[in-house]
Amino acid sequence: MINALSYVVVQTPHLDAWIAQARHHVGLHVDVVEPGVCVRLRADEKVQRLLVSACEGESSMGMGFGVLDAAALENTRQALEDAGYPTTAGTAEELRLRGVEGMVHFTDADGVRLEVAYGLADAETAFVPGRPLGGFRTGDMGLGHVALITEHFDELSHLYRNVLGFKVSDHTQAPFRVEFLHCNPRHHTLGLAYTGGPAKIYHLMLEYNDFDDVGRAYDMALVNPECIGVTLGRHINDHVTSFYLKNPDGWMFELGWASRTVGPDWGVEELQGMSLWGHDRTWLPDDKREEARQILKRLADQGVRAPVVTTAQTAKAKQ
């Protein structure tokens, strides 16, 4: 049913800080819809990939998942209703702001707003990054991936797998329980984690086309080390090299490069851990942080490695 993470919707009391970080650090294209009220953040030719609006009080983030057309939207809506998730049709204003032809929304067990939409429009102007960079890897694989820390792991796993049609890529129990789910060739579009803590948005992964753009973003973060939520490292499953940047609302952008893809012959496996090296998660309690360090040590002792499969830089080298 779902074919991609199409966009995310953010409500924030820190709109100006969001604009500054998105443009100058992450390198997104900022289109102001209404000054001081709403902006569209672009990562490619689409009219928006993040819709960010000002609010008072607590911030929130919801996800917009893409389907093929109106018929697919109706099928998904019916499946959600049959599974006990009441849906609401998007208003004309909501459709206009998102640049989509049709949309319904509902709320998951953790209170996160989820939207299902089709027909995300192209922008009328070219994509111009906020700082010099080689662009973001999107296309048919969507914006990137989202990771959620959930209090209702089994219920959310059922929702995404059995109602929305996601498939398992892999899973692990250490240093906490995680399930990685895909809906297109991107290794995973969603990560569900049960850490024993309260439900929250963990991160949104944006994938650069060029490795140097990760390094330059990391250079900028090192000027203010407190903004780094997870240090530079490489994941064991999707092979992304990345670091995690705290955004103004306290959750994180994972800024990465060179994710692997999955196909119909993909084999699900239990992972030995989360990362091959690096990725010190500063937010973990001390015992879990030490457990993660020991996992990295075991992997190093075993000599575990992974290939690098790149796209944009390989193409440029052949020109």
From TrEMBL:
Residues 4-119, 142-258 form the VOC domain. SUPFAM superfamilies: Glyoxalase/Bleomycin resistance protein/Dihydroxybiphenyl dioxygenase (SSF54593). PROSITE patterns: EXTRADIOL_DIOXYGENAS, VOC. One of its GO terms (molecular function) is dioxygenase activity. Its cofactor is Fe(2+). CDD domains: BphC1-RGP6_C_like (cd07237). InterPro entries: Glyas_Bleomycin-R_OHBP_Dase, Glyas_Fos-R_dOase_dom, VOC_core, Xdiol_ring_cleave_dOase_1/2. It comes from the Bacteria. Keywords: Aromatic hydrocarbons catabolism, Dioxygenase, Iron, Metal-binding, Oxidoreductase, Repeat. Signal peptide: none annotated. Belongs to the extradiol ring-cleavage dioxygenase family. This is Glyoxalase. It comes from Pseudomonas veronii.
